[in-house]
Inverse folding.
């Protein structure tokens, strides 16, 4: 656990043990993970969605000027099929939606 904390640069690291191949093990791990409060949701949104919005905003004018460009973002497949236990999948879905909407608004297509 010390290694993970040191690598993450945060003391806010929680350990959880469970066999994720079993229903009981998965439930044990999920119980160890605290629910996200509003501040944590905002942080995930800032890191995963708004950072992409800002990057698109910065790069899109040059792409339009050149008449060509591509925007690639990396998000989990949970953006399309969000598991019930993965609330952060909503964040991945938002990233995809934001990118598509911003490009469509600025360029008329995705």
């Amino acid at each position: 656990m010390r290694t993970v904390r040191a690598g993450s640069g945060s003391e806010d690291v929680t350990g959880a043990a469970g066999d994720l191949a079993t229903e009981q093990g998965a439930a044990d791990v999920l119980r160890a993970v605290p629910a996200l409060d509003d501040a944590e949701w905002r942080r995930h949104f800032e890191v995963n969605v708004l950072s992409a919005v800002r990057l698109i905003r910065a790069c899109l004018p040059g792409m339009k000027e050149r008449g060509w460009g591509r925007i690639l973002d990396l998000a989990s497949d949970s953006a399309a099929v969000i598991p019930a236990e993965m609330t952060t999948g909503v964040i991945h879905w938002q990233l995809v939606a934001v990118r598509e909407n911003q490009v469509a608004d600025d360029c008329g297509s995705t």
About this structure: The CA atoms of residues 79 and 93 lie 4 Å apart. The chain has four helices and no strands. Residues 38-66 form the longest helix (29 residues).
